[in-house]
Specification:
single chain; 457 residues; globular
């Protein structure tokens, strides 16, 4: 940690405080983004094995400020009175949709397993020793390039991301009942894929997507979750459980090798979890200006969309080049690097201002009870939660999952509005019929003694 980078970090804290004051909530886009980077910018200052350069921290502060500026402009343009109005209803067939995504996710797990152990019986696959052998064998094959994930499994992976998002919607709408917690079973396929492929992102992405949908739905319901000590304790316990699980998975991956010992695995995880901001800052300081002179115009930021619509083929992995620092290789540069490469440093700040403007518009719509925009706001939250790794929309499966989520919620909101209009028209018709049947006194004229009112004689 350099003292200049630590001093620059104060700017991030100041932006977060100012965005919270103007936005009125920590779930306002600018405040949420800045608060997130207060945490994920502060942790590397304390625990990163790579020193954070001041240029990197200054860019983070500038990105937070640019997003705040865009949100502030949107606040000025919107009319006042955007406050929660009605309790959003649960979209139709939500439970069935979660169950369907879970089944499709389990199908993806089965395809992956049988692509590795096609001659294995179900009993062998369920034995502990066979699972460890399969994990180790698959890790060797993936690193050696002799195994590729089946195309059918890649397509079905969309369900492993859509399911947790739908579960987040259900948890945000339902306030009571143990049945709503059963929706968390949609995380089971992600857990299995994480264990089999030893890819931490499979589970972490599902958790981030589910949390983003939950936050957006709670905003629509007018009860954004507060950070209480009880929730902090539950979050800390969850982090510990997940960390222990990742250690055990890595030990199984490198079983029989020196790198599979507990101490070596813990050190490896530490070296791979906290360096993201340090690596980005080193890259920005050495390559930021040259990258700005040769922008790639969206090939990284919109890689998933470009690949989905055959505009440009997405490069496998995060980034093609790896940065070597102190003899270790890194290819995680945060989402900031892709934006800088696509639009240059000034263009990246303008891009963040546009994101802040659009996210604030969606946030205001969601606060007013328009559930059709919940998926759009959830997309912003998801991009923020995954920005310490890379832009979340470089993955085709996640792009498709959000297209399905936004479309499903938009159709559900339209059906709900149509039913409310029909119900309102019926109620107006009933009232009009009752008024006509009761006579002149029912039209709002006080006539408690039933005195006949008519023309004078």
């Amino acid at each position: 940690m350099t003292w200049l980078a630590a001093a620059t970090f104060v700017l991030v804290l100041a932006v977060a405080w100012g965005a919270r004051r103007t936005g009125g909530s920590w779930y306002a886009p600018a405040a949420f983004f800045a608060a997130y980077w207060c945490v994920f910018g502060g942790l590397p200052l304390l625990a990163s094995p790579i020193a954070i350069q001041p240029a990197g921290m200054l860019f983070v502060a500038a990105a937070c400020a640019a997003l705040w500026l865009g949100a502030w402009i949107a606040q000025r343009r919107l009319p006042t009175g955007y406050t929660p109005q009605t309790q959003p209803g649960e979209p139709p067939y939500l439970g069935w949709a979660i169950a369907a995504c879970t089944v499709l996710g389990l199908a993806a797990v089965a395809i992956i397993l049988y692509s590795v152990e096609s001659s294995s019986s179900a009993v062998r696959l369920l034995s502990f020793d066979a699972i460890v052998q399969t994990i180790h064998k698959l890790a060797v094959a993936r690193n050696g390039g002799t195994w590729a994930e089946p195309a059918a499994a890649r397509v079905l992976t969309t369900a492993t991301y859509l399911g947790p998002m739908l579960s987040g919607v259900m948890l945000g709408i339902r306030t009571r009942g143990s049945a709503r917690w059963l929706s968390l079973v949609s995380l089971a396929p992600s857990v299995m894929i994480t264990v089999i492929l030893t890819t931490r992102s499979s589970l972490l992405l599902s958790l981030a997507l589910g949390a983003s949908a939950y936050f957006a739905t709670c905003v629509a319901a007018g009860r954004a979750p507060a950070l209480t000590w009880q929730r902090v304790a539950w979050l800390a316990a969850g982090v510990v459980v997940v960390a222990i699980g990742f250690v055990l998975i890595q030990m199984a991956r490198y079983a029989g090798w020196s790198s599979g010992r507990p101490a070596a695995v813990v050190q490896s995880l530490w070296l791979s979890v906290f360096p993201y901001l340090g690596v980005f800052s080193v890259w920005l300081q050495s390559n930021g200006v040259s990258a700005s002179l040769h922008p790639t115009f969206g090939q990284y930021t919109f890689a998933g969309f470009f690949d989905l619509f055959h505009i440009h083929t997405r490069v496998a992995g995060l980034y093609t080049d790896q940065m070597v620092i102190d003899g270790s290789q890194y290819n995680i540069y945060t989402a900031f690097r892709g934006v800088v490469q696509d639009f240059s440093i000034p263009g990246a700040l303008a891009f963040f201002a546009l994101v802040g403007f659009g996210a604030e518009l969606a946030y205001r719509r969601v606060r007013s009870g328009e559930t059709a925009f919940v998926g759009v706001l959830a997309a912003f939250y998801a991009a923020t939660l995954w920005s310490f790794v890379v832009d979340v929309f470089i993955y085709n499966t996640i792009v498709l999952a959000f297209v399905l989520l936004i479309g499903y919620l938009a159709i559900a909101a339209r059906r709900s509005a149509s039913r409310q209009r029909v119900r309102g028209a019926r109620e107006e018709g009933v009232v009009a019929a009752q008024v006509a049947a009761r006579g002149p006194g029912a039209a709002g004229v006080a006539n408690p003694h039933r005195i006949e009112i008519g023309p004078g004689r």
